[in-house]
Each structure stands twice: as structure tokens, then as C-alpha cells.
């Protein structure tokens, strides 16, 4: 858990460096934080309301699709902002590095702490 916290703080540090360094000094990249907060929500919903995670059903597929859209948007926003010369490409690189670290941390969290509910709601 401590190493995951360290990785998350390193990723956020890359994001802040991409915004705050004097040669970049542009805070538009902070909108990527919205994607960081939104990315685990569909997975949590699918784990909570799906009957089983191993089988495929519509809820799991929609949640995977939404998570993929959020993931792609987090990488696409800095690239589009850099392409339109709103931010510099160096800042874009730092934010993309931060994206890789933060999303890896989120993925590792779900891998290490994936627990199935042992309580059967239909066993009344």
C-alpha cells in the first residue's frame, strides 16, 4: 500500500511539474485530474452490481468501455492541447509520464486489492 501511495504521488508530481515549471507555466493540464478521479468509478460499479466478474454481461462490458474512454481521454487531452499550441510539448511529455504512472497505480490497486463479496445477497 505504501508503494502504491509513493507511485501515485510520483505521478501527481509529474503532472504538477508539467504545469508549474517556469518554462511551461500553464495550468490547463490540471484537468487531467478529473480523469484520474473518474477512471475507477465504472470498475467499482461493475464489481458491485454484476452477478459475477468472471462471466461477461452487458454491465461489465459498458463499464469497460467507459473506463477505456476515460483512459484514452486522459492521454488525448494533453496531446490535443500541445498540438493546438496551448501548452508546450515538454509539459505534454511530463503529463503523459504522470498518466502512465498514475494509471499503473490505479491498475495495481485493483489487482492487489480485488476482493469478492463473500456474502450472498440471495441466500435469505
UniProtKB/TrEMBL annotation:
It is found in: Membrane. It comes from the Eukaryota. It is a multi-pass membrane protein. GO terms for biological process: late endosome to vacuole transport via multivesicular body sorting pathway. It holds the Pfam family Vps55. GO terms for cellular component: endosome; membrane. Keywords: Membrane, Transmembrane, Transmembrane helix. Coiled coil: none annotated. InterPro entries: Vps55/LEPROT (IPR007262). The chain crosses the membrane at residues 28-46, 58-80, 86-114. Its main location: membrane. Belongs to the OB-RGRP/VPS55 family. PANTHER family: LEPTIN RECEPTOR-RELATED, RH04491P. This is Leptin receptor overlapping transcript-like 1. It comes from Helobdella robusta. The lineage of its organism: Eukaryota, Metazoa, Spiralia, Lophotrochozoa, Annelida. The gene is 20215887.
